[in-house]
Amino acid sequence: MVAHNGRLSDGSPPISTIEMKPMSGQLFDHDGQRKYLTADEREAFLKAAERAPREVRTLCGVLAFTGCRISEALALTADRVDLAGRLIVFESLKKRRKGVYRGVPAPPALLDALDLVHNIRQLQQARGGGRNARLWSMSRPTAWRQVKAIMDAAGIGSGPQASPKGLRHGFGVAAVSAGIPLNMVQKWLGHAQLSTTAIYAAAVGDEEHHIASRMW
């Protein structure tokens, strides 16, 4: 991307001009352990999820492919799965006010699975359009345990990355590694500040090598 007037062609400022937050408490914990899933771990997680009950499998898919918070996934109702627009619309629950939404593109296979398992089209055609039909009835602690069990089955281990938050961080790292503009990743993750999103450009391991390889 070519810089113009101090900004990149996608309208976002260069990473060097973004005030980066300290890495402790972000992609690494206080012991220096990473808090995000690598590409291989994300793939292993999704494969392990294929053997889980259908509702757990769809929950895992939404978390992995949209980077949403687990509470945002559990708040999803049928009317916010936009099959025609190929989007899942989340209410950003960490905002200071309610009613702030963001649309995140979703893979066709995930949308098909949501329709099959949760009867999206049927609910949207019913009275009320599915506005009060939550996709998952489980509590947040139950959902957390279900996701953690899938990670255990995938052999991801017991580090800080082995959590629903690790999926969210893994989504951010994967997006930046794929060359998605930071302002777009910011929108998808629902970050208020671009500096929060910019931490994913500091990923290590295979992700860092992938980013660096663009200069080689």
UniProtKB/TrEMBL annotation:
Keywords (A to Z) from UniProt: DNA integration, DNA recombination, DNA-binding
SUPFAM superfamilies: DNA breaking-rejoining enzymes
Record has DNA-binding as a keyword: yes
Signal peptide: none
Domain of life: Bacteria
Tyr recombinase domain residues: 32-215
GO biological process: DNA integration; DNA recombination
Matches recorded under InterPro entries: DNA_brk_join_enz (IPR011010), Integrase-like_cat_sf (IPR013762), Integrase_catalytic (IPR002104), Tyrosine_recombinase_XerCD (IPR050090)
GO molecular function, one term: DNA binding
Protein family according to the UniProt entry: Belongs to the 'phage' integrase family.
Protein name from the UniProt record: Integrase family protein
Native species: Polymorphum gilvum (strain LMG 25793 / CGMCC 1.9160 / SL003B-26A1)
